[in-house]
């Protein structure tokens, strides 16, 4: 490895904090707030700073990025501007073919579209899901010219998974529709979109059975004994699970929580919109037991942007760590997400708190105008009383009714 190299393949794969990371020799890895990664070569030409993209961090390996950066440096030695050279090459490649126009396939256009919209994905893995789902379930469309894809082609692809993998099939249909809409906007096809659902494919494909996914939940009557067992365990994952339960939060919201989101004086945790399922900022009142969990894991001088609950080897925890913890507690029959159902059952069956209080505490998306108005009001103090009562119930002796 050259002396200038500073990055490693593991570092490239695991780094998540937004920023720009140097590998030396003008090569940098850029990590955006969305989580996407890209390689960039930064150089100076005639006293002007220039940047040249070298590809996505997902598709281009560290070794390949170094090779491309080395080629760019060699051009500079030869008094050539790498960016201008690239533009010249692309211009030549884009020149019309003398005998026949280039045929744009569905596959080529889908890949181009995904590249262009990746910054809009809230979660980095969504880009990979787009690629993999289309490549796997719409593979028969890929070699077709994008202006030749028909209803028959689409139904033939979807029918293979329409009833057996209903949710995946619906997502694939929506992605095909978006690709074809974009192709029409680019002037590559005309007419109605054959992947349209309303008034079109809904008349041709069989009706899917609605499947509701239930997460195995612990009966709330067993919460006291469970929390006593959990509190006796020293692992950081046990403290994180305690906090998940006491706040009725989603696992991902807690796993990604940073110290800067917590106001200890106000006893409030503010989850930013970009980390919420509904895309709306959410305030969580913190009970004294929840604050005690934070005190147990808080360093003397925590960095504002540091994770509150870190994995043993650093970085963000995965959901698997909670599954392993529950199995060690001989409670492999329940799930982390199921504790939200436990909380909801307790509110509805054992308390006089309003349904709206519970829905707001769970940060559920709501549809009625009355409840939306309630949400705008936040009702933080009402929810604080609710979460305090929940903490008392969770930590009470196990012989509670």
Structure description:
This protein is an alpha+beta fold. It is built from 17 helices and seven strands. The radius of gyration is 26 Å and the shape is globular. Residues 367-373 have low confidence and may be disordered.
Task: Break the fold down into its secondary structure elements and pairings.
Elements (H helix, E strand, L loop, with lengths): L8 H6 L4 E6 L2 E5 L5 E9 L2 E9 L5 H16 L4 H13 L11 H12 L6 H14 L13 H8 L7 H20 L11 H8 L18 H9 L4 H12 L3 H5 L6 E2 L4 E4 L10 E4 L2 H10 L21 H10 L9 H13 L4 H7 L7 H8 L3 H16 L6
Helix pairs in contact: 4-5, 4-7, 5-7, 10-12, 15-17
Helical content stands at: 40-55%
Q: Overall mean pLDDT score?
A: 84
Order of helices and strands: HEEEEHHHHHHHHHHEEEHHHHHH
Number of helices: 17
Q: What is the general shape?
A: globular
pLDDT < 50 runs, ≥5 residues: 367-373
With strands numbered from the N-terminus, the spatial order across the biggest sheet is 1-2-3-4
